[in-house]
Amino acid sequence: MSSNAVYSKIEIDMFSFNHTKTFKGGIHPSDQKVLTENLSFEVMPNPKQITIPLTQHLGKPAKPIVKKGSEVKVGEIIAEQNGFISSPIHSPVAGKVLKIIASATVIGFPKDAIVIESSEANEHVLMSPLDPETVTPQEIRDRVRDAGIVGQGGAAFPTYVKLSPPPDKKIDVAILNGCECEPYLTRDYRYMLERTDDLISGLRLIMKAVGVEKGAIGVEDNKPEAINKLKKAVKKHSNISVEVLKTKYPQGAEKMLIKAVTGKEVPPGKLPFDVGVVIQNIGTAIAINDAVVKGEPQLTAALTVSGLGINKPKNLIVPIGTPLAEILDYCGGVKENAAKVIVGGPMMGVAQYDFSAPVMKATSGILVLTEDEVNDHEETPCLRCGKCVDACPLNLTPTKLARLSSLEKFEEAEQLGITVCMECGTCTYTCPANIPLVQWIRFGKQKVMALQRERQTI
Ligand code: SF4
Ligand code: SF4
Fold first, then answer.
1. Which of 159, 317, 376, 403 has the highest local Cβ count within 10 Å?
2. 355 three-class SS
3. What's the whole-model pTM score?
4. Least confident among 3-17, 102-116, 299-313
5. Under 8 Å CB-to-CB from 341, ≥6 apart: which residues?
């Protein structure tokens, strides 16, 4: 990462709040948020053609219910939920289905996708609004499922599943993740400033759906304006608190956030449900509010377009299915010294090579980084400095895990807990030898998980 002095704001704001809440390990990359943090959301006009992959979520791809030549309206279901862990997809534009083909995606693998030519027509098919005060927990879950809402924090897990804890798990608190600890991204920050009441309404609906009295919003202390606004807005809800957390990567990782807010540790292989917590992203809470209160399905993605390699950084609302290339053009195009395009944040995002790939429901950002920002230094042998071990928030030994993966000693890596790794990239960031630790660990983790699946089928 660049150490450009213009990004020193983090040090100034860090002392604005009295805080101690955080977790062990982690790092302090330059947050680079100054490029977009003061830019309000802009709504990008509909592109002429959109491409909507059937895999917008974790789980089974949605099943198309339209075919070539079908006319569609805004909000109409074009692919239905296909199993418990799946999610329906709605058309974000009115127009005509051109084809269903395998398309490039921002996750790196081609997936079947519905291509729609958009028209000038603006006919909508919305669901009927529900009263947030009288809606029942089951009605909230059904609406969230029918609206095709998936987690906005990156994993794109169907949200209604996360609102359906097993009956034997007692939930104590619902937490909204307002950390946005990845550098550059300011989407959640803008949401906290621009849609404060809607996100609190979404949190109250989440609390009702899972039957908890207590809600909390965790925000890093580099966002003082958002903290002030949220604190004012929650005054009328005595059961909701705003928790100010130390700015540190990866504070927004679920396990780290739960530890900082509740003091509880989620054991390896367990879920937030297991320690009585339901956790949702800020954008997800807003989508829940919009689905219940306005009857809107999830049709758009809110994202930050940033980096020193893009001419006009922006925070944008775009229809899902908009090609990356059109968004980059809308932002004034890329500069000559642009070296890399990443979807997501610089720590956990995915490098892009095909800009026809479309935005998905959970896309949070597009970064265009210059050579200085990419900082691709040559790899040297391990110095045995232990920095990666000290920084790992999950107490793993990244240096050993990466070495075992590179030597294809997958069973030994499994014994050392490689599957617990959340691929946060903290170890790689700290490594003075520039060893691509997380890349090796990701490779080893995939192999170990394949071995585990094989064992289950024997
Ligand atoms: S990527 Fe995995 S091993 Fe590396 S710091 Fe993050 S959790 Fe630890
Ligand atoms: S930080 Fe890098 S150089 Fe230091 S022990 Fe870990 S892998 Fe080796």
1. 159
2. coil
3. 0.91
4. 3-17
5. 324, 328, 334, 351, 352, 355, 366, 367, 368, 369
Q: Each residue of 65-89: pLDDT tens digit?
A: 999 999 999 999 999 999 888 899 9
Cβ atoms of residues 278 and 207 within 8 Å:
no
**CA of 392 relative to ligand 1 center, distance in Å:** 5
The span from the CA of 425 to the CA of 260, in Å, is 20
pLDDT single digits (tens) 200-234: 999 999 999 999 999 999 999 999 999 999 999 99
Cβ of 399 closer than 6 Å to ligand 2, yes or no, is: yes
Which of residues 66, 90, 118 is at a domain's end?
118
* Domain range enclosing 194: 5-30+130-294
Torsion, CA 19, CA 20, CA 26, CA 30, rounded to 10: 20
Q: Could you tell which of 266, 438, 442 is best to mutate to test the pocket of ligand 1, judged by most ligand atoms within 8 Å of the CB?
A: 438
How many domains is the chain partitioned into structurally? Answer: 3
Closest residue (by CA) to atom 4 of ligand 2?
385
Among 247, 272, 294, the domain boundary falls at 294
Residue whose C-alpha is closest to residue 262's, from 274, 440, 285: 274
Q: Are residues 188 and 257 in the same domain?
A: yes
Outline where DSSP puts E strands in 73-211. 77-80, 89-90, 95-103, 111-118, 173-178
Over residues 126-151, mean pLDDT: 96
Please give the distance, rounded to the nearest whole angstrom, from the Cα atom of residue 417 to the centre of ligand 2.
18
3-state secondary structure at position 110: coil
pLDDT greater than 90 at residue 5 = no
**Tokens (6 digits) for 152:** 């906005």
**How far apart (Å, rounded) are the C-alpha atoms in residues 29 and 26?**
10
